[in-house]
Amino acid sequence: MTLSPPASGRLADAYDLVIFDLDGVIYLSDSAVAGAVDAVKRLHDEGRAVAYATNNASRRATAVADLLTGLGVPAAADEVLTSAAAAARRLADRLEPGARVLVVGAEALRQEVAERGLTPVTSADDKPVAVVQGYGREVGWVILAEAALAVRAGALWIATNTDRTLPSPRGPLPGNGSLVAVLRTALDREPDEVIGKPEPVLFEEAVKKDSARRPVVVGDRLDTDIEGAVRAGMDSLLVLTGVSQPRDLVAAPEHQRPTYVAKDLAGLFDDVETLAVTGEGTGWRVTDGRLEGHGDPIAALRTIAAAAWSGTDVTHLEGAGDEAASALRTLGLGSVSRS
């Protein structure tokens, strides 16, 4: 699926399915991101199709839907796609019914594995034929040691995702990728398969379920949400409410560059021409190491990112005037001195 961004109109009107990441986009831990509830409710009120695709394997789809509903976001379980469910499906496709699987993660992952007709175990002594690893707050040395022994004995090793961090109101916390790194170090090898983003599996499932022809992915992480959208050939919107920040966007490699950038989900109702990462029509320009112009700092960010992606050195960008210097300070970019 390869799309050309529409030339004008609201972003929400340009696509027939909006696929949301959750952590850092809709909520942080169990608290709603500012403006997120109103934005998603507005989409529902307008009859827009939505889906939620999360790498977090610590909740099942029903629990995620309940959490969203409790926050005021209209959501049904069949709109939620989790890496836990996708990993369990993949295991069921590859293994014999009743096969033993050592589960590293939360109870939600264990339940998904059991419901696929497989047998969850917790010890390498049970001779599991596979290890599935997902995020869980209670994951510790004991279960990681059992997983290492099982993989070393020949078990298939599947990770639900490799997100290094999880966003939270207190700042980034260790994610499943940090736990996968423990086994990677102990085993000196990579997992046999990673299911979640940036792999396009969850996005492809969402598109298939809704028979969508023009989906857009909304996420807060360049290395999972946006890269996953690029791999799937889908347009994407980066919101700056979670992990990836302006400096990350400016330095993004080609395979992690979003189609659009917005401060938050209110951007869904802005014009696509305004949101697109280009150096045109923003009120800003980058010339000879200087940011010039006036207007919204996020518009300045789009201009700076476009310049950087085209090969312009923006490492020591300076603001030409008070407003430009203020925009750079707000974005955490450049030397922010006036010239």
TrEMBL record:
It comes from Asanoa iriomotensis. Coiled coil: none annotated. InterPro entries: GNAT-like, HAD-like_sf, HAD-SF_hydro_IIA, HAD_sf. It comes from the Bacteria. It holds the Pfam family Hydrolase_6. SUPFAM superfamilies: HAD-like. This is Acid sugar phosphatase. Residues 289-333 form the GCN5-related N-acetyltransferase-like domain.
